[in-house]
Structure formats: C-alpha cells, structure tokens
Specification:
about 375 residues; mainly beta; single chain; 1 helix
Length: about 375
C-alpha cells in the first residue's frame, strides 16, 4: 500500500462511467428495526451531509444505500434538535407529512428511459406518510400507487434513525438489483427553521445513479470527525473489500478552497479479501478558508471503472445550535432599507413590533450620512 499527497489532476479528469456509485450486494440484508449503521450496513455506500442549491446543510445527516437481489435498502441518520422537538403533527398516513420534519425516498428504476417513473415515499419520525408516482415523459402522477415499503424509525444518541426495505417487485416486474442502473435520492425536510436538503442536492426526481454488483467492488463510506463548517475536522474515506479476490484501487479526496493550494490525499492499494483501509484528510483549525468544495473518487488504478464519485460544497460557518421552534427576541425597533441608484432614492421599512406594550411612539427619524464625508 502506498499513501501520498500528490497532484491528482489526471485522476480527476479521467472518464467516468454513468453510475456515481458501484455498490456490492449485502451478504445479509440489514434488519429494519430503526437503528442504522454498524456492521449490518457496512456494505452499503455511505454519505455524510445532504445539500441544496450547491451547499451542505449544517445540521448533521448521513445516508446509506445498499441492496440484495430482490430489495433496495436505504437509511438516513439525522440529528435531533439541541433543544426542542421534531415537528410531528401528522398522526395518520398522508403526503401532508411534508409539513413535518420528514424524509423522502425517490427511486427511478430506468434513469435512461425517455418515459420513466420516479417512485416516492414520504414519512415523518412517527412513521406516518404516503406514496406517490411521478411520471416523466408520459402520464400524470398516480396517487393510487402504494408501495407498502417496510420501514422503521428510532431515536438513538441524539439522532433520528430511519431504515427502509424497498421490494423491487413493488416498482417493476422481473427485475433484480444487479440488472441495470438505478437513480436514488434521499432527502431530509428540516423544520424550525425550514431547510430542504438531499443526497444529490437536487429536488425530487434528481438523484445519484447506482449500480449494484455481486462482486468486484469496494464498500465506500465517507465520514467526518467533527463539524466541517468550523474547519479543524478530518475527512475519513472508509474502504472495505467484501469480495474473495484482491481488489486494486485508487482512492482520492481533494478539498478545493478559496485559498490555494487545495488539500489533497490519495491512496493506491491492492485490497486483500476482507481488508479495510481508511484514507484520512485532515483540515487544520487555523485554516482561514471561507469556502470549501470536496471531491471524492474511488476508481480502478487505470480510472476506467469508477466505484464512487461525489462532490459537495459548503461555506465556512459558526458553531450551530439547533433550537427548534425558538424565535430570536425582536429588537425594539428594527428596519430594512433599499437603495435605487438610477433615481438616487432610498426606501426604509421600520418595524416597531418589538417595543414594550406600554410604550407610546411619538415619531421616527432617519438620518442618512455620506460614508466618506459624514455629511448628513
């Protein structure tokens, strides 16, 4: 095994197969009991962080995707509020679970077809939700479809664990997991405050493309040791060879920053059957970067077969405490302004709702000064 920090331009520019992830089948299906992770999910593809509009959501979340020949398996582990509770108003099955803290699973069995179907499942943490079909290039949505996917939720160590078993026969007939590609998207619909984020960073029918194989592919799981928004974190790419033959690999993580140079780590290795290796990418605490983009890539040494590829971005942030449902105390007097340069006019909107109830407003005065001269 050889580990180095070197130029990866050639590696990152090589051609990529259609699938974003090539994933080995489970040797034994995970138990759907509302506790994800651990050895039973070790063969799944593992992802840390969901994103939206090109940026990760700072609230913590991990996703897993795996399969047997007859079922697809997904799991999502997301943090609970530091103070307060998840929104769980829905107490019956309905697509109105979207108004709660909720999860969505989208599966497209034929991502290349001009006429294709995305199968959707939506649930809150109590297990109430609904199903839907989204037709692309064909008929309208079919709200009558019910997948009856087996799922379970649980709460462990400050996190909401969700697991789901998806029978392939509930979507398509005479199809196994290893036949063709699948597009899968996992989403987390956060409340208090509201943010929508997903595995692929795209809404609804977007998703990563998966190919499941019986042998010849590693298990890949990306983790972080602490909040990447604060720097002083370490990225960990955990590689496992579940097969019976040696698997040659080239693994790389490249962290592009708005401060040169990029932080890089790569590894060439020949993984023996059952072997496990971790590629480590440390980011220093005093790193002055304000914008990060991480590219993860695991491929064959010649780059012709790509087993895992993902790109995520995020800004440098501040320590985040999720106070669910708590509103910031309003200022006694607050305002917004807009400036219109073509007419040299300014508009002010003043908010006095934060004033004490017994206060009596006599008037409001605004004074605008020139920045350089200070003249009013």
């Amino acid at each position: 095994m050889k580990t180095r920090c070197a130029c990866l331009c050639a590696l990152l520019s090589l051609s990529v197969l259609a699938a974003d992830c090539v994933v080995p089948l489970f040797g034994r299906a995970p138990v759907i009991d509302g506790k994800a992770g651990g050895a039973e999910w070790a063969r799944a593809a593992g992802f840390t962080g969901f994103q939206w509009k090109g940026n990760l959501e700072q609230r913590r979340v991990r996703g897993y995707v795996g399969a047997t020949e007859t079922h697809l398996y997904v799991a999502v582990v997301s943090q609970l509020p530091d103070k307060g509770d998840l929104v769980t108003k829905l107490d019956r099955d309905s697509l109105k679970a979207v108004h709660d803290d909720s999860l969505e699973v989208y599966v497209c069995p034929t991502p290349e077809a001009a006429k294709r179907v995305d199968y959707q499942f939506l649930t809150n943490s109590k297990g109430f939700g609904g199903y839907n079909i989204h037709q692309v290039g064909g008929d309208s949505e079919n709200v009558a479809w019910k997948g009856d996917w087996r799922h379970a939720s649980g709460f462990h160590d400050g996190e909401w664990h969700f697991e789901c078993a998806i029978p392939i026969s509930s979507m398509v007939k005479d199809r196994t997991a290893t036949k063709g590609e699948w597009r899968i998207n996992l989403t987390r619909n956060w409340k208090n405050p509201w943010t929508w984020s997903s595995l692929a960073g795209a809404y609804a029918q977007g998703g990563l493309r998966f190919q499941f194989v019986t042998a010849g592919a590693p298990s890949v799981d990306y983790r972080v040791t602490s909040d990447p928004f604060l720097a002083n974190f370490t990225g960990q790419l955990i590689l496992t060879n579940p097969g019976t033959t040696t698997l040659p690999l080239r693994a790389a993580m490249v962290l592009e920053r708005n401060r040169m140079p990029a932080i890089r780590a790569d590894m060439d290795l020949a993984m023996a059957p059952g072997a496990k290796h971790t590629l480590v990418l440390p980011v220093p605490e005093n790193d002055p970067t304000t914008k990060y983009t991480l590219q993860i890539r695991v491929a064959s040494p010649d780059g012709k077969t790509v087993y895992h590829a993902r790109k995520v971005s995020w800004p440098r942030g501040k320590p985040h405490v999720w106070l669910a449902g708590e509103k910031k105390k309003a200022l006694p007097i607050d305002f917004r302004f807009a400036y219109y340069p073509y007419t040299n006019a300014m508009r002010l909107a003043v908010d006095i709702n934060g004033m004490p109830e017994d206060a009596k407003l006599k008037g409001l005065k605004a004074l605008i000064r020139d920045r350089d001269s200070g003249e009013a």
